[in-house]
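In response to reviewer comment 3 from the previous cycle, which asked for concrete evidence that the modeling workflow produces usable outputs, we include below a single protein chain processed end to end. The sequence was submitted unchanged, and the resulting structure tokens are shown without manual editing.
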Amino acid sequence: MIKIIIFGGSFNPITYAHIGMAKLASQIYTKAQLYWCLGDTHNFKDELSPYDFRMSLIQKAVPDASIIPMGKYMWDFLISLPYNPKETTILIGGDILNEIHKWKNWEELISTYHFTIVRRMGIKSERISLDNMNRMNYNIYTKNIVMTSSSEVRQAVKEGKPTYDMIPRQIKYEVEKYYVN
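The workflow returned the following structure tokens.
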């Protein structure tokens, strides 16, 4: 039985997609506690806003969120927790399957932890080999969730395009002010 949901990421910035995924996971695992695990770096991207800024955006967008600092690597973070891996699921977007092989100790990670994967429509997420998928304990969900990425939000802001359907209104001003450059 899943008791803990780990939703790790850089949330640079938090989007409706993140919030929708968290709500979906909470509906699936009704007795589980969801933790937003904010990474202090992003190992595959250079463009990252300050940690405290991203933390404040999560707090404003999801006031009741339980937020835990994650550090640099998901693996190091997970093994530091007092939770049984068999009672823990890692919540990811389907597009993350494209880069999971780059994660620290990824083979041990996929064979130890359960994954809840929410597919992002229009993104190919099957690049991970069938052999690796066979070693994973996972559930895949395709739901009608606005799946805008943080990168798309940052790009829209830079181009002066509207973000009303991408991010919560309570963080709109700060996001647009910060990411305009």
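The mean pLDDT is 89. We consider this sufficient to address the reviewer's concern, and the full set will be provided in the supplementary archive.
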